[in-house]
Amino acid sequence: MGYGRYFDHIMNLLNEIKEQEESAIHEAAKLVADTIMKGSIVQAFGSGHSRAAAMEISQRAGGLVPVKLLDEPSQGRYEKVKGIGITFMQEVDARPGDCFIIISNSGNNALPIEIATCAKKVGCKVIAVTSKEIANQKDCMHLHDLADVVLDLHSCPGDAAMEVEGVPTKVCGTSSVCADVILNSVMLEAIEIMVEQGYEPPVLLSGNVEGGMEYGRKLVMRYMDRLLRNHTYYY
Known about the structure:
Layout: H1 3-20, H2 22-37, E1 42-46, H3 51-56, E2 67-69, H4 84-89, E3 99-103, H5 110-122, E4 125-130, H6 132-135, H7 143-146, E5 149-152, H8 175-196, H9 212-222, H10 224-227
Parallel strand pairs: 1-2, 1-3, 3-4, 4-5
Helix pairs in contact: 1-8, 2-8
């Protein structure tokens, strides 16, 4: 069977990202580290399948505790409808100094663009995780136009990358795998920066190892006001 073709394609794509996105990964890591060391939090958002990448860095064993997953109630069903992101952000507890990581492979839909726009207005930094090639196919505002740092997923148009004889469309997307790897790379380097600067990084220990639950609870308590406060009207 040809499953190995997909492994090869992903490995080649990851090597391409490793070489070409090195500078952007460094800059994103600095933003994340500075945000946390200054007492603010990272807020991660993705709609549709991009939500998986936001989940990957939020409340993750081995990940940074002050990374909050932003859950939009429709789960991205209306991501192309203008105004949804603006309405959603009216209730998000975004504060100056926070850093938003916004994942959108296409980079053209209204929802992530509006969230990025609102975050910038509040005084937050924005890291975009997107595909410039796909976004630039449309003559419109792009997510990467609003970002302080852009992490390019190098996805092909349509995202699916593999051809199968007898199937009229390509199969097997690449953006989810690449987004997870590139964002974990950012978190790793952010943690290293914190250590270099003498700051103890708040890394979550798995609840499945001895002492993990107690260790994690102490860290979460430190950020509870921000992590558990989903809406501004809870003030």
